[in-house]
From TrEMBL:
Keywords: Acyltransferase, Transferase. It is an enzyme of class 2 (transferase). It comes from Mesonia oceanica. Its EC number is 2.3.1.89. This is 2,3,4,5-tetrahydropyridine-2,6-dicarboxylate N-acetyltransferase. The lineage of its organism: Bacteria, Pseudomonadati, Bacteroidota, Flavobacteriia, Flavobacteriales.
Amino acid sequence: MIYSFKNHIPVIHESSFVHPLAAVTGNVIIGKDCYIGLGAAIRGDWGEIILEDGVNVQENCTVHMFPGKSIVLKKGAHVGHGAIIHGANLGENCLIGMNSVIMDDAEIGDECIVGAMAFVKAETKIPKRSLVVGNPAKIVKEVSDEMIAWKTAGTKLYQRLPADCHESLREVEPLREIPKDRPKQENFYKTLNEFREK
């Protein structure tokens, strides 16, 4: 669902995928290879929202701001299921954990990891490569090379997902029984423990 608002029409690169049950409104620019999941709302009615290349905004996320603000989710930013980005800027290749809330004028640095259900207060400045958890969120340590490599590998899956969705996602009627030739799921990602063993 793509909506104009006060003559602002969203700009979405053709390589990106916006789920038909997501809503993108108004002054929004979405770069290449971005994934916008079902139930996500990206609402550029009161200000501009820019998603640089390779950003993913997963299912049931909200991206919005106070009037007059503009925000950027930089290249490779990864916004987990149910998170809220309200007037905050996200650095390159950062990870925002599921159901986190990042408030107005907060700045999340490059390659930060914000843990699930964290609450980052308004105007908080998080330096690059910080691991942030809690409510209110606090920096607990620096993100290791191993952690950011794992995060980057996961984000690459989301950067390939738009092409897979364009190619194979279709509305269908459900099967009523399991077919004998049901395809096996690909095993294309390692857990963090498997990644460490590599």
